[in-house]
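G., the chain you wanted modeled:
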Amino acid sequence: MRKTNILLLIISVTLLLFTSCRNDIMDLQPLNKVSSEVLLANEDGIRVYLANLYYQAPFEDFTYNRIGFHTGLVNTVGIHPDAQAGNAVNSEFNHLVDGENFPWWDAGYKFNRDVNLLIREIPNIASLNEEKKNELLSEAYFLRAFGYYALAKRYGGVPIIAEYQEYTSDIESLKVPRSTEKDTWDFVMSECDEAIKYLPSTRSGSDSRRATKWAAYALKSRAALHAASVAKYWNKATFSGEAVLQGLVGMDPSLADHYYKLCIEASKAIMDGGVHGLYKANPASVDEAIDNLLKLFQDPNVAPEEAILVYGYGKPGSGHSMDFWYNPNQTADGAPHPGRMNPTLELVDTYESYSNPGYDAPIVTTVDGNINDYNGYSKDKSYLHFDTSYDIFKDKDARLWSTVVLPGTEWKGVTINIQAGYIQPDGTPVIEADKASIVVDGVTYHTFGADAWKEYSGFDQQHLAEMTRTGFSFKKFLSPTPVDGNKDLGYSTNDWMEFRYAEILLNYAEAVVESGYTDNNAQATAKEALNATRKRAGHTTDIPLTLENVLRERRVELAFENKRWWDLIRRREFHEVFNNTIQKALCPVLDLQVSPPKYIFVRKYIIRAIPLSFDRKMYYGPIPGIGSNDLIQNPQY
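Predicted structure as C-alpha cells:
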C-alpha cells in the first residue's frame, strides 16, 4: 500500500506531506537503494524527495514533545511542552525535562545531509529551467536554515556542514568542528536570505503547504529574536569551560542589537508584504472574538491570511493525538486517559481583564483581595461568592475562553463539571478529599459535583490520570465535535501553523522594545503591532509599548503553541521561573453554608506537587558522541 501511495503521488504530482499522513512518507525508498540521479531526475521525483524533507524538518507541532519529534502515535503519557514550561501541569506527573532538552542531533544531521544532496543535484537536473532551479534551491536553503535554527537553539554553536559529504573509510576527513554560536546564528541568517531570493510570494493547490518567501522571512524573524535574546541575557546565566572560551556557547551582549535589527527588518517585510495579516482582526464583540479564535486553531485553513506555513494532516489513525490526551474527562470520546493538560493558575492569572487593560488580572477570591496566599481553605477568610463556577472569569480576555476549558462552561454540548469539594453547613470543609456526598434540605450534593466519575472532570484522586488538579482543562486545537475513533491514538487531523502572522507582530514588538530601535517610526509601529492581537481578542483600549506588556501578550497569544519553552530558554528566565517552584491551582468549592448554595474559590498549591527547579546547564543540550566525533562538550555535561 505504501509503495502504491508513492506511485500515485508521482503520477498526480501531489505532495504527500500536505495531503496525507506523515507515516506514509517514512516508507520512501532510501537513497542507497535508489540513486539520487534517478530519484532527482525530474520534478516529480523532486517533489517526493521534498515531501520526505518536510517530514524530517523540525516542525514543533502536535507530534512533538519532551522526547523529540514525530511522537504522536507513541504513548508519551500526554506531557505537552507547555506542561514543562509553566503554562500547564500534567494530571499525573511532576517533573521538568532533564538531560537533553527535546533532542535533535542525529536526526538533525541526517536531515542536513539529505538537504545537501538536493542542493548538490538541482543544478544538474536537465528537465528544469534556471528559474525553477533557483526556486528549488531557495526552498532547500529554507529547509537547511530551519534545520540549523533547530540545532542552534538546542546546542549553541554546531558543526556547519554546507556541502554533501560522501561516505569514506577516512573518518577523520568527515569530522567538522563546532562553529561558534555567533557563526552558527549568522549561517542561519544567510541561509534565510538565500531562501528569500527566489521563493515565490504565494503558493496554491498541492503546493500550498510548501515554503514561500514569507515563511523564510518568518524563520529569520524567529531565529534572529532568539539570537538577540541569547546575546542580551547571556550574563543572567553564564557558564565556564572550553566551550565558553572558544565561543561555542554564548555571545557578547554587544551583539544583541544587531540581531534585534535583523528580526525587525524580517518581521516588517512580512507586515508590509500585503499577503499576510490577522484572521478576523476586528470582532464586533468578545463572544465573536472567542468564536473566531476557536475556529482559527481548529482549522487553520480558514485563515490563509494568518497562516504563513502550515503542516498538514489528513488521515485519521495516522494523525496526531491532541484530542486523545487533552479533552476533559467528560468529553473523552472513548480515550482511556484524557484530561492530561491542566492549565495553571499562573497562566490564567496572566490574561488581562477588559476593565483594567494593560495588567495581569489575577483571580481575586477573597474580600481582602489577597492573591498570594496559596495555603488552602481557611474558615477565617472571607470568600467572595458566585452563582456559577464560571462567573469569576467573566471579565477575562477572550483568549482565556478559547484556550482553556473553564469550570462550568460548555464544551461539545456538555457542561464541564470541575469542582474540588464543598463546605458543609456546619463549616467543615471537604476539599480534594475522597469521593463523598451530603444531603442538605433534601438535595444531595457530591464532592466533585456529581456521583458518577464520568460526569465530572476534576480533582478525584481515585481517577487522577483523567482529572484536572489545577481547576482548568484544555480547549485550544481540540475538535469541537466528538472525534470518531478517538479511543485510539492518532485520530486528530486538524493542521498545524508553524508560522503565523500574530507571532511576527509580537517578534517585531519585542525586538523594538528590547533594542530601543526608532528608525522608520518603529516605536509607534511596534505599539500598533502589540495592540493588534489584543484588538483581535476584543480589547478596545490600547496599552503602552513596554516589555512587560509585550511578554504578557506573547504568553497568552501563543499559549500551547510550543513557544513558551524556548522563550524561557532564550531570555534566560527558566531558572527564575522554576526555582523550588510549586505550581498553583484554583479550586471551585460549593459553599453549603449559604442558601441557595454558591461557589467560592480557593487559590492553592496543586495537589501532589513537588518543588521544581531548572538546572541551568539545560540552557544548552549535551552534544552526543563526543568520544568519537572529537567535538567539545557543552558546559556541565
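Residues 1-29 have pLDDT under 50 and may be disordered.

Shout if anything looks off.
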